[in-house]
């Protein structure tokens, strides 16, 4: 299990605070869990794609307008077993189309930002991610198919110059209610817990997963805040 710790400076208007956080501590406590036992397994399935880009901003993970900007727009909705009650939000997968005439060997890497309710496909991809599986000049051909056979596996997320971050939701109210989104989780981690405390205090209050990547609490400490985030480590 991994622990991340942040400090968040609390302003008068909490609703205006976005990603005002700084990674101040990180340490590894233990590796893996039963959930991660098959992180390296290659799975066989099918994928489709979103016809409308607007669907990307209304995903079940709660990333909102940030979602289309993740990973260069290479994002996806995963079936319930991958969404994992929201713990799968932010997970990265390499997906390769099995049509050798149309598709490249490298495929594409996607970030899970939504829940896919269609049991015919494990993923529904953004059109950008879907066409990225194709060989050069074959993007329109793969779009015409609509659904393709694929193989996929979990891979580490790499956000390059971005650290794990916290974004405060506009619904938050000073000293009454706090809701946050956890963004840019690197590696092969799944966020399984979050806590908040006043800076300098050892008295932590648990946050509850509201849905997707959104966590909340009505027990909001006064003053500047620090966060502690727990995550399972992939193998």
From TrEMBL:
Stored Pfam families: DPBB_1, Expansin_C
**Signal peptide feature range:** 1-37
- Per UniProt, residues of the Expansin-like CBD domain are 176-235
Q: Name one GO biological process term.
A: anatomical structure morphogenesis
Q: Which UniProt keywords apply?
A: Signal
Q: Where is the Expansin-like EG45 domain?
A: 58-162
Name the domain of life.
Eukaryota
Q: Name one GO cellular component term.
A: plant-type cell wall
Family membership = Belongs to the expansin family.
Record's protein name? Expansin-like A2
